[in-house]
Amino acid sequence: MNLPEPLAIVLIVAAALLPGSLIVSLWGKPLREDPVAFLFAGLSFGLLAFGWLALTLAELGGFSLTLLAALWLGITTGAVIVWLRRTRHRVMPLPMPAAHRREQRWELAALGLWLLLVTGIYFRPHEFIIGGADAGVYASLGANIVRTGSIRFVDPVLAALDPALYDGLLRTLPTSEGAPYYLLPGFYVPAAAPAGDITPQFYHLHPVWFAVGYALAGLRGELWLTPLWGILGCLAVYMTARQLWGWKVGLLALAGLSATALQIWFARYPTAEVLTQYLFWTGIWAFTAWLEKREPPALWAALAGVAFGEVFLTRIDAYVLLIVPILLAVWLWQTPAARRGARWFYVPLLLLAAQSLLHGWLLSRPYFATQIRFGQIVMRQGLALPVIAVVFLAVVAGFLMAQPARRGRALHWLRVARPILLWTAAVGVVSLALYAYFLRPIIEPAQAYPYWYGGGELRSLDQENFVRLGWYLSPLGVALGVLGAGRLLVRQADRRTALLLGTGLFFSAFFLWRISANPHQVYAMRRYVPYVLPFFILCAAYLLGWLYRVLPGKTRWLSVGLTALWLVGIVFSARGFVGQVDYRGLIAQFDRLSAAFEPSSVLIFNDPAPVGIGDFVGTPLRFLYGQTVFTLRNPKALDAARFEETVRRWNAEGHAVYWIAVEGGFPWPSPALPLLPAEAHQLSGQMLENTYDHKPQRLNDFVWRFSVARVGAEVRQ
Questions:
Q1: Per-residue confidence at 227, pLDDT binned at 50, 70, 90?
Q2: Distances (CA, A) of 98 to 93, 453, 544
Q3: Please, how many CA atoms are within 13 Å of residue 28, restricted to the half-sphere of its CB?
Q4: 201 CB contacts (<8 Å, ≥6 apart)?
Q5: What residue ranges do the domains of the chain occupy?
């Protein structure tokens, strides 16, 4: 199919909403009186179900839009039949009070206006299709899943390649990377796999959704999926605030989050951050509704379990969330009245968590092993976290094994000490924030870590993480977020907010303590988008809403003014991000470049850089445009005779062979094979500057120049 991108997005939303809303309607009537919750729950059920189906098909090597559509038709038809049977003699709900209807109309009008504004801002995706970085790898994976039907796949040209050429034409990796080679960054060549087997990195729910977009609307259809997740992530945060504090506070959180530079940037940038944000906060919303005993409990428990479970299928750094079902089990054991719907939470959550572990081990093992090892290194560097975790689990285990009388006394003293503990926690949060913002940048020195790419180093400026968050939230936004978290701890730390506070504070402390260094500063901020950024926005919105309620008379204008300053600060901090689209026009340039090659060609780049033109340009040419790509990585390791024999064989098999050379690159390694006259090509555009030590603001021009020469089949005398 080749639908227009907007039509493809509308089709995805409609296809998810129809069966999802039928499922929600079948679960019970309470949500019929809350159209916003009904629609969002229905849409989420549909998206979660079909995302899982698409991923499972790709895991089994059978992904296709036709099969997915057939499954959708079967599920939807079944849901319609059951819905018609169950609602034949339904009782009409009682009419709502006029005041409630007015509130709903105002809420729907506000959400409609917001949707119009944010659609115009978000649906301008960066044309980031180049290789050598996660974003381009995601885009390439989506298209490749459509072509091959699977996640792992066999490259037939690589399968026929003489292993003696591997060291010359593949990147040799250190043992810590979990595979001996990669073909292109993110596409590993495992040691024990069959010849030609390629194992892509990452967890693949996000690339599978890209595959759906690619199958519907081509390459641009992929890129339009990310803005959809950005909008739904904002709505999930809105629904969480609405559930806890009402729709007006929710609207304030929605406005603040939608306007932040980080949300705008990553709603256009084709990585998995905003999909994770949507899944995580949908889980928080549903979990909160379940613990608030909102009817029907099974619906909310199931939605929370599936949403959290799919976070595990999206990101490998989310396994810390498995502490949630453990602590919940302890609480449910002590609170039998709260167990309604528990199995609907646990069954999908644990099954999806198990699926994600199997997925990592079977379909992305080098990435899985590397990331688990990296997590162990991080824990060893900060021993406080594992020590605290061990002590905490020991206390929980001791509590569970204690005699009932002792457990009762412990709970009694815990209730007595609760105010003191919460005040201590609130003071600790504020104190740590003051240290992190004002003292840590001065006291702690910068560090450098060796990086295997080219033997260089990456600088870590983790001591400035909190200050850097303020670049995008504004200093006032950071202060309001910290004070709001303290206020929540002191006055509203209960079962309704336990998960919000627990995960928000944990992820904030962890990622503000350390994030992976990266030369692209705004890209390094990706760690904050799923969890930390929404948490700070929610806490600030809660605090501002509370101030408006408690301030008497005209003093309420103080809270109104503070709210205005907060929003203005966020918008001011987003200057330069709203209009900027990285790599604008690059897809059209790649279309023209690809047309210069014959179909099923073999392209050999000469770029000597550890990650260079061969990776930037070669990855999309291989996975988006269907060419075979190699880069001459190590001329000294290349067996010249076998290389010449291989090139002649490629020509004999009907593959045109091209030598793509950059200035200063390796020379053509086979003088016996002629190169036809070369043609000059270039790719150019603009991108946000790569920075370490300041907020990116400038736009940098880039130009990639290279020549393309076809390799003749005859041997030169």
A1: very high
A2: 15, 65, 28
A3: 10
A4: 137, 186, 187, 188, 364, 366, 367
A5: 5-123+209-573, 583-710
C-alpha of 213 from chain center? 16
C-alpha–C-alpha distance, residues 347 and 306, integer Å? 9
For the chain, what's the residue count? 717
Does residue 165 register a pLDDT over 90? yes
Residues 489-504: tens digit of each pLDDT: 999 888 889 999 999 9
Give me the half-sphere count of Cα atoms (radius 13 Å) on the Cβ side of residue 708: 21
Confirm if 573 and 474 have CB atoms less than 8 A apart. yes
* Secondary structure (3-state) at 452: coil
The single-letter code of the amino acid at 454 is G
Q: Which two tokens stand for residue 623?
A: 């996975």
- The pTM is what? 0.94
Q: What are the tens digits of pLDDT across the range 528-558? A: 999 999 999 999 999 999 999 999 888 899 9
Q: Is 214 exposed, middle or buried (0-12, 13-18, 19+ CB in 10 A)?
A: buried
Query: Structure tokens of 443?
Result: 């006291």
Cα–Cα distance, 416 to 407 (Å, whole number): 14
My answer on whether omega of the bond before 635 falls inside 30° of 0, hence cis, is no
- Asked if residue 413 has pLDDT above 50, the reply is yes
What is the pLDDT, as a whole number, of residue 717? 37
Q: Tokens 């007006």 map to which residue?
A: 248
Q: Write the single-letter amino acid at 717.
A: Q
The SS3 of residue 339 is coil
Residue 250 has pLDDT above 60, yes or no: yes
